[in-house]
Amino acid sequence: MSADSSAATAAPQVSTPSVPGGAQVDLAGVSHSYPLSHDLEHGWLHLLLRRFSPAARARYEAEAAKPDQLAVLNDIDLTVAPGEFVSLVGPSGCGKSTILRLLAGLEQPVEGSVTVDSTQVTGPSPLRALAFQDSTLLPWRTVRDNVALGPEARGRMERDRRRVEAALQIVGLRDFADSYPSTLSGGMAQRASLARALVNRPRLFLLDEPLGKLDALTRLQLQDEILRLWESQRFTAILVTHDVDEALALGDEIILLREGAQVAQRGSGPQLLADPADDFVARFLGLDDAARQLQLTDVAESRIVLDRAGRAVGRLADESSSEAEERA
Q: What global pTM score does this model have?
């Protein structure tokens, strides 16, 4: 055997980089609608009432004129790269939560395709976790048993028992594993809900206003918790929220939707704040001329974006020293 071949044999094997933990998300030409019911009163008595009462006739005609379908999404295209944390914001009724339900497999689009990792979404999957505004813990099960619901349903409890304990440890509830939901605070219940989703090691984490009912201090604490979990596990995260500050704090990219889920602007928080696409974006973000003039500062080794009032409104991504000097 030659020296070269011996050296090659003895050389340590270099491990290949691990595949990103997050999933690729694609919505292509997606339209979705919900059926509308018509509260039409029938029968001879109501017919007689409409004949002699203009008010009853007007109510009947207005109800009959309602469309059969409520269009929520209209030919929307959306792509989220693996490992991104995207915040979806927009006015009520613009289709934010509907997008999450389609991605979770709870509903099927009327038109278009919804794919995760190039696979058509046809139903729920443990690799696509959904966290709701309510913790939805089963009151008769302990925290540990609630977190273990996924592995139990999949017949993997013996194999995943250590994962359950690890998930409890990650969210700081190991000491409360044998407690029941009725004894938990709102923040602790949401932590348990996060652990229940994370125990399945999801590649896509969908968050539908999970912090909406918590007090301000608990919200801030759980925002940091969610961000820490994302940074450690690098799943793809899509957050729906009405809180612009929360969207800016958590999302490394913001997608602002108009009615019908049309994308008004997409970009990082600092980009949207510094250069809103139009008046709709500026009004939704609560910007005036003074707030658009942003200043940058370094806080705890992170580039924090402040408005002129000194309020933190976002973070800039890390830059090379040369780029930082150019900006300075």
A: 0.71
